[in-house]
Design a protein that fits this description.
Elements (H helix, E strand, L loop, with lengths): L1 H4 L5 H29 L4 H21 L2 H9 L6 H15 L5 H9 L3 H21 L3
Helix pairs in contact: 2-3, 3-5, 5-6
Amino acid sequence: MVEKASPNSPLWKDMIFAFLIGGAICCVGQCFRNIFTDTVGLNKEQAGTATSVVMVFLGAFFTAIGLYEKLAKYGGAGTLVPITGFANAVSSPAIEFRPEGIVTGVCSKMFGIAGPVIVFSTVCSVIYGIVLMLIPS
């Protein structure tokens, strides 16, 4: 009954837009990395760090001005590119709950979505490290 009542999802269109928007975000990141290595003269590790900082800033900035939401409307999963998607996931609730105050609004809601991801990733990396430590090389 639900399948009959719900409209068909434009799957191919959604996948193409996700690919194009996600690819464009990655291309922007690669351009910044190239600028940091070729123009600024940073080594690859430093350029990667600088690129991450710029992409997190851009993700949070575009969220703050409402552009990231519009981009996600068309790009869907393509906007979940790890760095900008993470910046959006952290800054969006912080902006939304700002009227509730710093502690009870911003601080408590900011990691509502990203917090479990951070905790899960940390726990998995610790378990992985223990397993690697126990396996003789």
